[in-house]
TrEMBL record:
Name of this protein: Short-chain dehydrogenase
Top-level taxon of origin: Eukaryota
KW NADP (keyword) present: yes
Organism: Kwoniella europaea PYCC6329
A GO MF label: oxidoreductase activity
Gene3D superfamilies (UniProt xref): NAD(P)-binding Rossmann-like Domain
Keyword line: NADP, Oxidoreductase
Similarity comment text for this entry: Belongs to the short-chain dehydrogenases/reductases (SDR) family.
Amino acid sequence: MADSSHSLGRSVLGSDALSIPKLFDVKGWVAVVTGGGTGLGLVTAAALAANGAKVYITGRRLEPLEQAAKEASPKQGGGQLIPIQADASTKEGIQKMKEIIESKEKWINVLVNNHGVSLGHANPNAVEQTPEALSKEMFENETFDHWLDACRINTASYYFTSFAFLPLLSAAKTVGNFPEPGNILNLGSVSGITKTSQKGQFSYNANKAATISLSHQLATEFARRDLNVRVNVICPGYFPSGMSTIEDEYQGSSNREYFKQRWGTPFGRAGNAVDYAQCIFSLISNQYITGAELVIDGGWLLVQRESFPSKVV
């Protein structure tokens, strides 16, 4: 419900409070980005560091983290990328990560739960479209471990990481004297919203839907308890990453029609680092947004085109 104009903070009108540097100011922030050595995690970490934040990037393997810190650290602006080897898919790894950061920092301003996996899956389009053939493909070529591993990494670990870092997030206001506590941004996906399995990606899509639900629940429970730790979830469509072959298949604007047909994105291109960083900053900076899911997919969800096999694909 819109408020009347005289009570919207008119004192800021005509001041520099509405300038871009003020609107998205993260200078002096402390951030943690899990899975921050590659892909969208690195885009997030590099964007924060480029604007003056101290960013801890975590992951299972130290080498890509160190390489990322070396190549993507800003040349100016005061931001940093600091690698920490820790496996966020286990409670032990999350505890280790928290203890290391707790030994260095008194608070954090944002926790970005970005780590995740996309495991192989059975393909219902690859067999004859009969009950018998579909049953055989989807039952025999999937395992409970496959489903549980994906859920453990993509959803359950976000729950444990969020609660592990809750005291440090809260301390951003009580100790760091920032206007608000730290906030949490979880990595969802349009795969958690779409009604299609995307050619058999049942497990990944189901646990990304669970991640979105978890984010809503965390936002609700923190708000009910007056903790004011905001929780939002970003839902990307197709971006070049280790989870897709887009980077190999799509090389530039000359392939827009191919990309539009192959990947079903109306805008005819993959998302890029600038697109993604703009969304990240809007969610982590706006002190009035919590419980939101922000879709950034070039219109893919609007059409959700997926070929349906009549017999065998």
